[in-house]
Amino acid sequence: MAEDGETPRVFYFENEEKGEYWASEQSAVKRWVELPIALDRGTLTDEIASVTA
């Protein structure tokens, strides 16, 4: 869980058809892939404006 003001972290991993997946940070580093979720909102806004214009 992210603290206030902290960027949350998102991971993907192999689906083993379990209801929940729990891992320590040490084991997650070996099996899970972290997805970057930082966005350049200026670029995104420019792209949306060009599509809707």
Overview of the structural elements:
The chain is an alpha+beta fold. The chain has helices spanning 25-31, 41-52, and strands spanning 10-12, 33-35. It has a two-stranded antiparallel sheet. It is elongated. It starts with 9 loop residues before the first strand and ends with a helix. The mean pLDDT is 79.
Short description:
Helices cover 36% and strands 11% of the residues. It is built from two helices and two strands; from the N terminus they run βαβα.
Task: Give the helices and strands, then pairings.
Blueprint (H helix, E strand, L loop, with lengths): L9 E3 L12 H7 L1 E3 L5 H12 L1
Antiparallel strand pairs: 1-2
| Shape category | elongated
- Helix content range of the residues, please? 25-40%
- Element order: H for helix, E for strand: EHEH
Annotation, overall tally of beta strands: 2
Mean pLDDT across all amino acids: 79
| Cα distance spanning the termini | 39 Å
